[in-house]
Amino acid sequence: GPVKNSPLIGRAFQVGLERLQRLLAREGVTPLNPLLTNADTGCEYLCAVRGEASRLKAICESIEDTEPLGRLFDMDVLDRYGEKLSRREPRGCLVCGAVGKGCASRRLHSVAELQQSVKQRLEAGLLAVDGERIGTMVTEALLDEVNTTPKPGLVDRNNNGAHRDMNRQTFYNSARALREYWSACFRAGAETAREAPEETFARLREMGLAAERKMLIATDGVNTHKGAIFLLGTVCGAIGRLWS
């Protein structure tokens, strides 16, 4: 379409670039002479790397095929001879999902349809990315809390304080079990943002009760994060309602 760049597009592009750089680093691959362009014609990233072209293509395809925003990314790999590597499996149409280039070559969908599909994918993808980030941040906060030392009378890295039924491992198990809950609270807030706050809270209440049961299973019946489930779950829901 006529619009190649926007704050929404730019943010999605940055997410894709961060994913790519993280996977390259995991493979021990360092980008050489990177060139980043952010213009009216769109966002582009170009770099040279020392590595096996087929392996690099597999990394790019894994992002395109599994990430929430992956369908909107176009990550090309050229080998040392300048030949572009092809995908193992063709991707489907952005609008109807049909595999191949038939829709584009025959112009079966209008520009307006394409723009609407892309906008929906951008918003849904960024919502998923932000939900994942919320889950990570709250989990890290819970782990930071239990590891803060000293905390007289409470579990910390030195001892179990006044508690005999819990230790740091109990808190670790609970934090892992609750990780998805925070993301779900964020999504619930976003999904009910146009409804009354009471509707959001009603959903959070049911989710919180389920999270408590999950916590107790992970801790063999010990209450580690019941207060956090209520307080931080409510905060995550509020962030979701304010998400834009």
- What radius of gyration results from the CA coordinates? 23 Å
Estimate what percentage of residues fall within beta strands: 5-15%
DSSP, total strands: 2
Enumerate the strands of the largest sheet in spatial order, edge to edge or round the barrel.
1-2
Helix content: 55-70%
Distance between the termini: 23 Å
Category by helix and strand content: mainly alpha
Low-confidence stretches: none
- DSSP helix count? 7
Overall pLDDT confidence: 95
Order of helices and strands: HEEHHHHHH
What kind of sheet is the major sheet?
Answer: 2 strands, antiparallel
Could you say which overall geometry the principal axes of the C-alpha atoms support? globular
